[in-house]
Amino acid sequence: MNPLLVVTGGTKGIGRAIADRFISEGFDAVICARTVTGVEGQNYLPVAADLSTRDGVNQLIDYLQALNRPVAVLVNNTGVFQPGQIHTEAEGVFEQLMATNVASAYHLTRGLVGDMIARREGHIVMMCSTASITAYTNGGSYCISKYALLGMSRVLREELKPHGVKVTAVMPGATLTASWEGTELPEDRFMKAEDVADTVWAAYSLSRSAVVEEVLIRPQLGDI
User: pLDDT tens-digit profile of 110-144?
Assistant: First the structure.
């Protein structure tokens, strides 16, 4: 049986690139997003769920438990960006971004990590951002959520050290995905989603005695 990857926000962009890379290496991939139209193939297992809600997270956990297969790698990639400043952004933006970018990863990880601990193996990847370490104007609640996600990753790393479960925080800079549609900037100012996927695969491929705790990836020409 193929090892199992779980990717949230996995229908496009970085999440889809990660799923494609792991599938090319012999994995099956559970891909979760609000809509999973167009996700097809023998090794793709699409699940439609809104992970910004607790019910949506529980729906995904129930699906995974029904598979009765160990999760080798969990990639908490679900996220949403909304520009704004703390003192001017609309009411509810903070709650929306924290629910989608942070709470989804918290509850999904809690739902799956017990089995990883029991097996003494597994790898949890937190898709953070350069916004996890660099605050910027117009980042608002997005920056807050990404700082929080990095903090969660660091706490998990300490908690899971003695249990054989790896935790990696990935902090990509500007990556050419749908969120940059319409930009007039040239493609070479961006990383490719495949660059991030290759980095995640490299982190997973280390021996059991080594872990990439945090990795920062930026475009060659620097931040945008």
Answer: 999 999 999 999 999 999 999 999 998 999 999 99
Q: Which residues pair with 127 in a beta bridge?
A: 170
Residues facing residue 31 across a β-bridge: 7, 46
Q: Are 94 and 80 in contact (CB under 8 A)?
A: no
CB count, 10 Å around CB of 3? 16
Separation in Å, CA 139 to CA 20, 54, 193: 30, 25, 21
Could you tell me the pTM of the whole model?
0.95
| Cα 21 from Cα 32, distance rounded (Å) | 16
CB 201 within 8 A of CB 171: no
Number of domains in the chain: 1
Q: Show the domain range for 13.
A: 4-217
User: Would you say residue 85 lies in a domain?
Assistant: yes
Residue 224 lies in a domain: no
CATH number for the domain spanning 25: value is 3.40.50.720
User: pLDDT band at residue 185, thresholds of 50, 70 and 90?
Assistant: confident
Length of the chain: 224
